Amino acid sequence: MDEPARARLAAWLSAAAGAPVSIAGMGLLSGGAVQQNWALDVTLGGTPQRWVLRTDNAAVLAVSHPRTAEFALLQAAHAAGVAVPAPLFCCTTRDVTGAPFFVMQRVEGIAAGHRLVRAAQGTALAEALGRELARIHSIHPPRADLPFLGDPPADAHAAFIAAQRAALDAAGTPRPVLEWGLRHLERTAPPPGETVLNHNDFRTGNYMAQGDRVSAVLDWDSPPGATRMPTMAGSARPAGASARWRRRPAASARAPPSTQATRRPAAAPCSMTAWCGGSWRRPFAGPSSPPTRRGGTCPATPAWNSR
Description:
Elements: H1 3-17, E1 21-28, E2 35-44, E3 47-56, H2 67-79, E4 87-91, E5 101-105, H3 113-119, H4 124-136, H5 156-171, H6 176-187, E6 195-198, E7 207-210, E8 213-217, E9 244-247, E10 292-293, E11 296-297
Antiparallel strand pairs: 1-2, 2-3, 3-5, 4-5, 6-9, 7-8, 10-11
């Protein structure tokens, strides 16, 4: 970011904060394949502050939520007690830095899976992740502050399966493992329950931890209904499908408290039983039945899809 843009940014932040803001340091953080994250060391009215500015990368995904929507999701999550960086200011225009952006508090923690596994002690971090999911799932529709999510479907579980089948059909490449997985989700669907907000990209790499404490749940930027291919990599979630409405299983279908959140941190639980997709076009008779798609039979060798 050049000096004129930094000067415009400092002026905009001063107006947004209602006090003079001086930028002492600014540097691009690592990671962020879809968005850019800039560390800001500032003084606000003479008091040092550590912030992060999140904005679009040079190349953006057409399916990604705009920064205004991601900021609204952060606000909703923060109000619900989810461990997220405190959202501060949002700029909706391109006049300041060349793209919309928002500013949040900077949070310390570890996101790398191999470091989390080495630092983990027992199941404490996995249990903490489960508590964060519970807080996310405490957000219910309708929400006037989240209009971009639309009205929740009558059955969010069935709607997800239908969307992933459509994505696989559109891609045209057989994905037998995803087809088996999606059919399993269909056959083992839980009883209808309440509809809640779903992060849908809740995986190692998208949260930060300090010891056994979750310091931040990150990356709320991708929308529901994206038609990109689902992936079995990482936490087996659909790539490019994040914050959306989902159906919570009825209380009788949930695991008892003693069995919840016992995964290792490197395989943090998603907010559904499994996130995979596929397209079945005939009833599944049992494990010996080959998955068959419209237009032919899936090959015996599964084709993995990377993030």
